[in-house]
Specification:
The chain contains 14 helices and 16 strands. It is α+β, with helices and mostly antiparallel strands. β7 and β8 form a beta hairpin.
Length: about 450
């Protein structure tokens, strides 16, 4: 058994027994909010990589970045597990190079360069096919100062088959009073904090909000159903539906490439929502994650999760023959499903789940709050975790506090679903509030 696998097993993270050296598991990184098997662990090379959050590392980085152990302690622990000096040097060198490459990539992504609005277009060989405008909450009435996303397309040839293909490039333009920016995304870390947009508003929400406000006091059954689709092009196509009154429709910025928490979903809390996925695994996983988030915040959620892996979406269906072809596509691919049909275990888990008293937890102690962060101390490493309350729902963050086996033992079905994580986080937050304000001197004693 490799050193990385030994560390994971000790923390209750069990790798699949089937398959080769490459194992797929849920990501264990803190603040990772995705339930899919997005992380690959190579037991032969003792390395891991998450295809969702791009986290990468080895046994050394697992101890320092995930467990929060100091570097000298990590080296001692690896030596006790049989790591040679060559192994230790390799681990540290790989960790340093990975962090340097990530920092270099992040600093080079946006090129936060001030530029006239039309100056970037001529640098592309393709042609501008669409322009989409995202309005921040304060601008959704005046429709001023939007975040502008341009869609550029370029005709290319597939290198292997020689067949023509279309390369799509999305460019984001962020207008600001002190200067305008071309960026890769409006909440990128290298943008000055005062210029970042986080969370990013939903595309089309400025048209949906007045409709929802009109029915604010109506019974739930009378409220309009809001459609959530993947991609601005799909949302605009739904808004142009003929022969039928177009439904209220929005789409999140970036699609499945971004975590659910980076989007402002608050306008849909407590509403009736229909989530329409693309016909691929990424689209279905993405809509399920959105559904859990909205359900947790009082929304009445329904799904349409088409079968297959073709990438066929609602735009393709509508462009064929409008409303009729879309309804035919929905009916042929399983129709609309209730939330309970897609997540049958969630409601049962919410009813049966009971968390033991936190003061008696064998793995951690809750001390209170510091600057709106929950302060939790590991009984094994004595490391102080200071976590924003809203990030406690991450499975990766919970694994920093106690092994996966502990959390699974609390859930009646053994699955740490989003409702279970939310209830765990709620219990921890309530315990922290009961402890009062965190005082460093009390801990140091």
């Amino acid at each position: 058994m490799s050193i990385l696998q030994t560390l994971l097993e000790r923390d209750g993270i069990h790798l699949p027994k089937t398959g080769g050296a490459e194992k797929s598991i849920k990501c264990f990184m803190p603040n990772h909010d995705n339930d899919s098997l997005s992380m690959s662990v190579n037991v032969a090379k003792s390395v891991y990589f998450c295809h969702w959050c791009k986290a990468t590392g080895n046994p050394y980085t697992y101890l320092t970045d995930v467990r929060g152990i100091s570097k000298p302690e990590a080296m001692q622990m690896l030596e006790s597990l049989g790591a040679t000096k060559a192994n230790l040097d390799h681990y540290q060198t790989a960790d340093r190079k990975n962090k340097e490459e990530r920092a270099r990539a992040e600093s080079g992504l946006p090129k936060v360069a001030k530029a006239p609005y039309d100056s970037l277009g001529p640098q592309f060989n393709g042609y501008l096919t669409a322009t989409y405008k995202y309005y921040k909450p304060e601008d959704q009435v005046t429709l001023k100062h939007p975040i502008i996303v341009q869609r550029w397309e370029e005709k290319q040839k597939n290198k292997k088959t020689g067949e023509p293909k279309t390369k799509k490039t999305l460019l984001t333009f962020l207008p600001r009073a002190q200067g305008d920016y071309w960026v890769t995304k409006p909440d990128n870390d290298v943008i000055p904090p005062e210029d970042r947009v986080t969370p990013v508003p939903l595309y089309g929400i400025e048209h949906v909000k007045p409709v929802l406000e009109k029915y604010r006091n109506a019974p739930d059954i009378a409220k309009p159903q809001v459609w959530v689709v993947e991609g601005e092009k799909c949302r605009d196509m739904v808004a142009r539906i003929k022969k039928k009154k177009p439904p209220a429709c929005v789409s999140p910025y970036g699609g499945p490439s971004r975590a659910v928490g980076t989007t402002d979903w608050t306008p849909l809390f407590g509403q009736r929502v229909l989530l329409i996925a693309d016909a691929d695994n990424a689209g279905r996983r993405f809509m399920k994650a959105i559904g859990r988030h909205l359900h947790k915040n009082g929304a009445s959620v329904k799904y349409f999760l088409p079968k297959g892996d073709t990438g066929y979406d609602i735009y393709d269906a509508l462009v064929e023959d409008g409303w009729d072809s879309m309804m035919e596509w929905i009916n042929e691919h399983g129709g609309v499903k209730e939330y309970a049909d897609v997540h049958p275990s969630d409601s049962k888990a919410e009813e049966k789940f009971e968390m033991p008293p936190l003061d008696d937890c064998q793995f951690f102690t809750v001390h209170g709050f510091e600057d709106e962060k929950v302060v939790i101390q590991s009984k094994e490493t004595h490391y102080m975790h200071k976590v924003p309350a809203k990030k406690l729902t991450s499975e990766g963050q919970l694994l920093c506090l106690a092994p996966l086996a502990f959390w699974r033992s609390l859930a009646p079905n053994g699955q740490i679903t989003q409702p279970i994580r939310s209830m765990c986080a709620d219990k921890i937050i309530r315990a922290a509030k009961a402890k009062g304000q965190y005082l460093p001197n009390d801990i140091d004693k």
